[in-house]
Amino acid sequence: MNDKEIVKLFFDRDEAAIKAADEQYKSYLIKIAQNITGSREDAEECVNDALLKAWESIPPQSPELLSAYLGKLTRNLAINRRKLLLTEKRGGGEAESSFEELSKIIKSGENVEQELDRRELAAEISAFLNELPELKQKMFVRRYWYCESVKTIAAEMCLSETHVSVTLHRVREKLRIHLRKRGYNL
Fold first, then answer.
1. Which stretches of 96-138 are assigned E, i.e. beta strand?
2. Which tens digit of pLDDT belongs to each residue from 86-122?
3. What is the Cα–Cα distance from 66 to 59, expressed in whole angstroms?
4. Residues 6+ apart with CB under 8 A from 10
5. Which residue in 71, 81, 24, 65 sits closest to 50, CA to CA?
6. pLDDT in tens, 39-49
7. Cα–Cα distance between 91 and 137 in angstroms, integer?
8. Cβ contacts of residue 150 below 8 Å, gap of 6+?
9. Are residues 71 and 100 in the same domain?
10. In 97-122, which positions are buried (b, 16+ CB within 10 angstroms) versus exposed (e)?
11. DSSP class of residue 62?
């Protein structure tokens, strides 16, 4: 079943939409959530919650790329779950490591008034990524969106861990310069 058919099921309020989305994207969504939470059990819970949120938000939302929509819902739920777990000081992981690397460049907003600035910043980061060669884009997204380890990225891209680490460091520095030129005080 393709995305349009699944989204139509959501619009028709047919519960088969949840089953179809689960069958189509479960392993993809589990991977996203597990990279962030570090736990298969927590990841499965995030995926179930994401499917429920999709049910609640489609309609009025009408995602063209259902995998990206579900991925974003899952990622946000996993990040929130991870924050909850961190308050209990249950240790570090790849998610914290990747977030920490980026936090040295980008400070997150503290309140609702900064939402517009956050969106503008996201647009600037997207513009920056679009200027990068494809390999660097993929590394950046895998590390900072999917929270994959440097080791995993290196193995799957047939590169050394050092190469991936150095490349990511250089991309972060270029991002810092790019954002400063655009007026972001970092």
1. none
2. 665 544 555 556 666 666 665 554 444 455 567 777 7
3. 13
4. 17, 54, 55, 58, 59
5. 71
6. 899 999 999 99
7. 29
8. 143, 161, 164, 165, 168
9. no
10. ebbeebeebbeeeeeeeeeeeeeebe
11. -
The amino acid present at 2, given as its one-letter code, is N
Question: 81 and 38: one domain?
Answer: yes
Of 87, 119, 135, the domain-final residue? 87
**Residue 170 is part of which domain span?**
95-181
pTM of the model: 0.67
Q: Are 135 and 67 in a shared domain? A: no
44 & 117 share domain:
no
What single-letter DSSP state applies at residue 89? T
Residues 66 and 142 grouped into a single domain: no
Please state, in angstroms and rounded to a whole number, the distance separating the CA atoms of residues 70 and 50.
7
Indicate the number of domains in the chain: 2
Quick check: 74 and 33 in contact, CB under 8 A?
yes
pLDDT tens digits, 39-83? 899 999 999 999 999 999 999 999 989 999 999 999 999 988 887
CB atoms within 10 A of CB 181: 9
